[in-house]
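Example record

One chain of 97 residues, shown exactly as stored in the release files.
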Amino acid sequence: MNPVGLFPALPSASLLMTTTGGLMLACTTFAAFAGVVSDPIQRRLGLHRRRLLRMIDALERQFADPASAGFVVHDQYVARVLDLFDLLGAAFRAAAL
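Predicted structure tokens for this chain:
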């Protein structure tokens, strides 16, 4: 029996699309439900409340004195914006093919 002919050298287009779509679906589902685990932990640690109070304090300071320091956006928000640019770039490259 010749083992060279058992498997094709290149996957079919349908296999490639199915595998890619399945991986995208699995990663998207995981990302969507990651908050189900992390949000209760952050709530118990008081992270949500501290962030909210810090933002309200900064807004109150700015209303009272417009020259005062504003609310500082930290890197988790910047990372989401960069993810958005990365996604748009990938969509642009995919559309150019």
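Notes: Residues 12-45 form one domain.
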